[in-house]
Amino acid sequence: MDGLLRTDTELALADRSPPSPVGCASKRTLDLLLALSGLLILAPLLLLCYFATMISSPGPVIFRHRRVGFNGQRFNCLKFRTMAVDANERLQKLLESDPEAAEEWRQTQKLRRDPRITLVGAALRKSSLDELPQLFNVLKGEMSIVGPRPVTEEELSRYGHCSAEYLACRPGLTGLWQVSGRNTTTYDRRVALDSYYANNWSHRLDMRIILVTIPTLLTAYGAY
To answer: Taking a C-beta distance cutoff of 8 angstroms, is the pair 132, 80 a contact?
Structure first.
């Protein structure tokens, strides 16, 4: 992992000229091969997650969240549902009653103690199994195996002058942020990592990220 981590200085010095679209045909071909292989190999696990989600709490099994992708394309990012059906009401109530939680949400758009998450959902999130349906997003060309994590329109505004780098990529199932601490890092560092990736993409970098993703998932480091 150490070879993938970049200092803040290195990230700041990354070329910030508008990048060309990342990967193009060769990256897309690899995405298709890996996504199809993943769906075939992981089909039993997908079914297990599907039925566990269905049985554990009422509501739809698949959660669709509107995200911004390559060239500003809007798409429905797929996940196994990990939250209660009244998640928005629970979040609003917490943010209004808990200033510390409100500040944590403002800074990271995440909560370590999230009242919206179900018991099965917590296990899926910890293992990142909730994101397996995004293999279908990869097949459709909305996402890539490796790239920045997909963001909402609200989050994209936080990228500032780095938004062009984000929009030059297809969002990824995994990426530099996911193998560099995930939720233990600041949002500014996440933006810097995405910018670095867009300006320094190569197949070699993608393969290194994929290889490092495996132990990161097994240890669930930075996941919540």
So the answer is: yes
List all residues 6 or more positions away from 77 whose beta carbon is below 8 Å from its beta carbon: 64, 65, 66, 67, 134, 137, 142, 143, 150, 171
- 34: which 2 tokens? 């890996």
Amino acid making up residue 162: C
- Distance CA(9)–CA(195), nearest Å, equals 13
What DSSP state is assigned to residue 111? -
Q: Which two tokens stand for residue 51?
A: 């039925």
Please write the tens of the pLDDT for every residue from 146-199: 999 999 998 898 898 889 999 999 999 999 988 887 767 788 889 999 999 999
Answer whether 56's CB lies under 8 Å from 118's CB: yes
SS3 content of the chain, % helix, strand, coil (to 5): 55, 10, 35
pLDDT of 203: 93
For residue 57, which amino acid is it?
Answer: S
Model-level pTM? 0.81
Question: Which DSSP helix (H) or strand (E) runs through 173?
Answer: strand 172-174
